[in-house]
């Protein structure tokens, strides 16, 4: 299955959820916000949302600073 993540295409084998994708990329789910097809789902729902061919995902990590 091919999805777009932060503007780059990625091939995924089998089913994946938003949560499993974030974990696959080695990202702490608590440190990011995910936009899924132009919507921002609640973090509690990430495990329930199954990715499909052609989905668009943006993973945004916030950094502190001043």
From TrEMBL:
InterPro entries: Beta-grasp_dom_sf, Mopterin_synth/thiamin_S_b, Thi_S, ThiS/MoaD-like. Pfam families: ThiS. SUPFAM superfamilies: MoaD/ThiS. CDD domains: Ubl_ThiS. It comes from the Bacteria. PANTHER family: SULFUR CARRIER PROTEIN THIS. This is Sulfur carrier protein. It comes from Anaerobacterium chartisolvens.
């Amino acid at each position: 299955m091919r999805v777009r993540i932060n503007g780059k295409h990625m091939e995924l084998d089998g089913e994946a959820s938003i949560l499993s994708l974030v974990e696959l990329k080695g990202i702490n789910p608590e440190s990011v916000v995910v936009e899924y097809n132009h919507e921002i789902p609640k973090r509690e729902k990430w495990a329930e949302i199954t990715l499909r061919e052609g989905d668009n995902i943006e993973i945004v990590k916030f950094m502190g600073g001043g």
